[in-house]
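Page 37, continued from 36.
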């Protein structure tokens, strides 16, 4: 109960921020729900490589299976991300590489005594770097000094060890969450302690902890001399101020997380700003003060349509077609907000439907504020409508008549 009240108050506060703001242009119904800009392979080209088995299962990338066009699209988004965004390391075709919920608030580490005279500086910089990621996202890095005397990659009392090695070229390295423990070392090399590297130690460790949280490099095709392969899912728009950039690739910041870094982290791990998104009750109706969290859906009461706040931050309306071999899910409308770190969709008590990032920044809304008590309906005719308390339609997706 306490969390619900907190959200409603937060939504009220946000509605003031968003009153009168310019809405992002809606994506027209029937258009592709994900932009192909910046991708090396369009979805249509990808579909040309897919074949469908007699039982309806789609087979792609040799031997990978998908059970709907929606799943195929997710697989394509992961296999061919646009360059430049804060990007999550892939765990497999469907999932990002992230710390699980039972570990993300207690990511423990030790710091090797081999740092000698530099050890206190490492302790301090790790504390600053960990606190930077934990300021807005629901993660905690926890230093366990009692393990320092035995701080090797074989130490399973901590999630990772911070160790020292010599190098004249590499500053530091770290690996994503799913890495086996015996390889999950954050290494700081000798050259990182020299002056003139361009990276304060705390900024360098913010970058490495970004890798440890599952983020890859934010290299851009625009104005950057660097490219990188390896796939991954873009989470945010391109940001040259990301800590996951390199200065020689066009990066402008080596000392602090950018807003998009923090918004990307809240996408993956949850937000300290939005303490909890509230899921809808029942079918077909999203009342004032309720919202859809990442991945949550609101179905029409005849189960033919559903509205989903997708993992990529896009609000999508799907039509489901049932057949003896299963069901296919077709997106018939979207908010056009994929990969902008949209954290949740909220039906505010002022009548506005708003998509916010994990920092409480709006990225899309229906411009229907000033109508307190309004609510949203996912109708059996395929239309999604916001109605005033007197039953007057204020906004719709324009997808009715199905
Ligand atoms: Zn890096």
């Amino acid at each position: 109960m306490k969390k619900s009240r907190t959200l409603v108050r937060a939504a009220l506060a946000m509605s003031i921020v968003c009153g009168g703001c310019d809405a992002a242009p809606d994506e027209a119904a029937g258009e592709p729900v994900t932009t192909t800009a910046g991708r090396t392979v369009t979805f249509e080209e990808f579909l040309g490589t897919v074949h469908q088995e007699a039982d309806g299962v789609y087979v792609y990338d040799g031997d990978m299976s998908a059970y709907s066009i929606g799943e195929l699209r997710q697989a394509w988004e992961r296999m061919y991300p646009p360059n430049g965004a804060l990007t999550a390391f892939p765990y497999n075709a469907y999932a990002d590489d992230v710390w699980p919920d039972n570990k993300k608030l207690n990511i423990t580490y030790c710091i090797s005594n081999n740092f000698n005279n530099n050890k206190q500086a490492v302790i301090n910089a790790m504390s600053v770097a960990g606190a930077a990621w934990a300021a807005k996202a629901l993660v905690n890095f926890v230093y366990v000094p009692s393990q320092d005397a035995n701080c090797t990659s074989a130490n399973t009392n901590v999630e990772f060890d911070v160790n020292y090695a010599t190098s004249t070229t590499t500053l530091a390295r770290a690996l994503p969450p799913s890495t086996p423990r015996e390889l999950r070392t954050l290494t700081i090399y000798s050259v990182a302690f020299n002056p003139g590297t361009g990276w304060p130690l705390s900024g360098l460790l913010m970058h490495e902890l970004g890798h440890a949280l599952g983020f890859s490099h934010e290299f851009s095709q625009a104005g950057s001399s660097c490219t990188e392969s390896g796939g991954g899912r873009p989470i945010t728009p391109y940001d040259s101020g990301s800590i996951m950039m390199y200065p020689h690739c066009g990066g402008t910041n080596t000392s602090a997380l950018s807003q998009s870094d923090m918004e990307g982290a809240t996408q993956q791990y949850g937000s300290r700003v939005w303490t909890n998104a509230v899921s809808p009750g029942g079918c077909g109706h999203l009342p004032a003060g309720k919202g859809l969290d990442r991945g949550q859906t609101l179905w029409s009461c005849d189960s033919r349509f559903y509205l989903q706040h997708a993992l990529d931050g896009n609000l999508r309306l799907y039509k489901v077609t049932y057949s003896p071999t299963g069901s296919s899910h077709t997106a018939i409308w979207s908010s056009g907000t994929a990969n902008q770190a949209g954290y949740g969709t909220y039906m505010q008590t002022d009548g506005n439907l708003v998509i916010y990032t994990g920092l409480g920044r709006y990225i899309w809304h229906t411009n229907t504020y000033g109508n307190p008590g309004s609510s949203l309906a996912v109708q059996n005719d395929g239309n999604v409508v916001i109605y005033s308390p007197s039953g007057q339609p204020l906004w719709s997706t324009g997808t009715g008549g199905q």
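Helices lie at 2-18, 43-47, 69-79, 119-134, 201-212, 259-269. Flag for discussion at group meeting. Confidence is low (pLDDT under 50) at residues 1-38.
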